[in-house]
Structures are given as structure tokens and as C-alpha cells.
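Session log. Operator J.P. requested a structure for one protein chain; no other inputs attached. Running the standard single-chain path with C-alpha cell output.
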Amino acid sequence: MSLHSHFVTDRRRFGLTADALVEHAARVARGGVSTIQIRERDLSDRELVALVRRVIDAVRGTPTAILVNDRVDVAIAAGAAGVHLRADSVPGRRVRAIAPAPFVIGRSVHDLAEVDAAVAEDVYDYLLFGTVFPSAGKPPDHRAAGLDALREACRRSTVPVIAIGGIDASRVPLVADAGAAGFAAIGMFR
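Structure written below.
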């Protein structure tokens, strides 16, 4: 079974310009990444729509889907494949009611209660569970959920679970063994 792979963007973390990010997105798409989740929180609405459109154009001809982090309006305006909602974002059913078909909707979940609530909503295409391992993108005291919690999240979920947090090539088999349908990472795709 081939795992689904999410590249989550963070150009500021790596000192990339928008142009460099677009080039990088094209490169990882050609390399086989399944999804690019654009998470550029500092951009204005106009800048974000423009960036998403540029990334969509850059990956055209590959099977890579482009999602926008937490901005349904931007995802729809730019023609993205869908949206990834934070755990504290609007309910997925509200997004499903306004989104064009087909439209991918994913949600971040951090614990089993959030997994159960998302499953009960019955509108998500996937859940992004983490932080599984300690991550360079989180403060040193940030609690990692661990593989046992990931395993239980996968068991409880009726939709694919994507693991995030501290994922590198050596940990991909561990998350697969725990039942994850895929993994998401920022630094792994540099």
C-alpha cells in the first residue's frame, strides 16, 4: 500500500520567497507528493489567492491536489481542490454546504475526543492527527501524542487518518504500521 503524502508549506520557516515556494511545490509534485497544503498565514487575501493559483498552475499535469489551510473562501476563489480546517475552525458541514463538488475537506485533530467529534460530523475526507512525534515546528515542551494514540485514532476513524508532527523518512514505516493512511510534513520535503 502506498501512503498518501502531504507537504505543508511554510515559506517563512525556511526563508523562501513566494517564487521559490512555487518552484519547490512544482518539484515535490513531480516527485510524487499527493497533496500540497498551503499554509501561509501571513499573506493578505489577495496575496494568498495569487499564490494558490500559481501553485495550482505549477503542479498542473501531476496528480497532486492543492488544499488551502483554513481559508475556504481562498480555496474556492483560487480553484483549489479543497480546504484543510484547523481543529478550532468552522464545522465541516458548513463548508460542505457552500463548497462546489467535488471539494476535499480535511480537519486537524489532536486527541481522541476530537477524532470522535470529527467522525460524528460525517463530512471529512481525511483527518490530520498529531503532533505524533516531537517536532521542530513546535515548542520543546509541546506534548507529542505518540504512536499508540495514532493507532487508536486510526481504529476509531471512518475516514483516512494522516499523521503529522516530527515525521521523517525513518518514521514513515512507524506511522504506516500504526494504521495511518499517510503522513504530512513540512521539513521532510525541503
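Operator note: The first helix runs from residue 18 to 30.
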